[in-house]
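Narrative summary of target 7.
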Amino acid sequence: MAKASYLLSNAIRKAALNLQNNKPYEWGHMGNCNCGHLAQTLLNINKAEIHRYAMEKHGDWNEQLNDYCPTSGLLMDKLIWNLLQTGLAMEDIMDLEYLRNPKIVEKIDDSLKPLVSNKREHVIAYLNTWATIMEDELTENINLNFNKEKTLTVK
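Modeled conformation, tokenized:
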């Protein structure tokens, strides 16, 4: 799973909020699908640019990731490289497109299961749950201690 960071958890939440606020969504469009929305948020790029980059190669996000080559010079490979630099793993991106990371899915309310990859409310639930898991991981790693002078130290 992705390396937890506040940058990443905030971007995941923002992508969910964009979808909640009815930002256009189209699962079959590389720039407007599950991964496309997160890429827009993380990389400050618009859906048309993502789609244009994706058309240099063939296939959906999973196929593009399977064919990923960081030295190809293709814009989609540069976009993927930039996503990976934010702490995402290739599996995170693949799982997002199909809403299939078991650690995330198990925490989603049963009333939404089974998750459907192209259903807006399922994508929103997946993104919000993922962000919560990441935020929980970040807060678990913070140890607050008071020393004898009653000042707070963070370890």
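The chain has eight helices and two strands.
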